[in-house]
Write a structure and sequence with these properties.
Layout (H helix, E strand, L loop, with lengths): L14 H42 L11 H16 L3 H14 L3 H15 L10 E7 L3 E9 L14 E7 L6 E7 L3 E3 L4 H9 L25
Antiparallel strand pairs: 1-2, 1-5, 2-3, 3-4
Helix pairs in contact: 1-2
């Protein structure tokens, strides 16, 4: 009678390996928080320094208190947003913007930042709509309709009933702009912020890091749910 083989028990991780996994779990938990706080503090510091210098031109140094620059920044941003509802101010802003776009280097940086921030703005027109495009092999990609009117574009850049769709890449700054028939675009019920986050993270939804009890051989870690 042949000897009965006992099932192999999974090897238990070594204490050093478990310590390393616990450290990685803590790192994955703390790092996004630290980066977010660092970026927020950096942005607020830059605004405080820039607008604080403008405040010092108007008041004596001994009157200045930390935070005045941020307060002025908030007031300026609010006033600009309020004035953008006035036709005269919009025309003046458009004239200044056209002058700004005449400067070669400034034109490239400003136009890129304006278009990128405009991707998340709440536009009333049906542009920047989240759509999906069908590819051969039962594949679909998410993108944004960036343009539907080519009346001011060079002749021949787009055919009739075509739209421009931007297809961002995952985990990098880049993408493709494709011209496709309007009928090839399927609207997706998703906000621009949600769609961009979904694309940039390759569709991953990270769960909160967790550590199993010491008696378990497995390790939950940080993984897609």
């Amino acid at each position: 009678m042949p000897a009965r083989k006992l099932p192999l028990r999974p090897a238990r991780p070594s204490p050093l390996g478990r310590i390393g996994r616990i450290f990685i779990t803590g790192l994955l938990t703390v790092l996004p928080i630290v980066v977010t706080i660092y970026f927020t503090v950096w942005l607020l510091t830059v605004m405080e320094r820039f607008f604080g210098r403008q405040v010092l031109f108007l008041i004596p140094d001994q009157w200045y208190r930390t935070g005045m620059g941020l307060f002025v920044a908030v007031v300026v941003v609010f006033l600009v947003g309020l004035l953008m509802h006035a036709i005269l101010f919009r025309r003046l802003f458009g004239w200044a913007e056209r002058l700004l776009l005449e400067i070669p280097l400034v034109r490239s940086v400003y136009a890129a930042l304006r278009d990128l921030l405009g991707l998340f703005a709440q536009h009333k027109e049906p542009s920047l709509q989240v759509v999906s495009l069908d590819l051969p092999g039962n594949l679909r990609v998410l993108g944004f309709v960036t343009r539907a009117d080519f009346s001011d574009a060079p002749a021949g850049i787009a055919r009739e009933n075509e739209v421009a769709v931007y297809l961002p890449m995952s985990y990098q700054v880049g993408g493709y702009t494709v011209l496709v028939p309007r009928s090839a675009c399927t609207p997706v019920d998703m906000s621009r912020e949600e769609a961009m986050k979904f694309i940039l993270t390759a569709g991953l939804k990270a769960a909160s890091p967790a550590i199993e009890p010491p008696g378990d051989a497995g390790y939950a870690g940080r993984r897609p749910s």
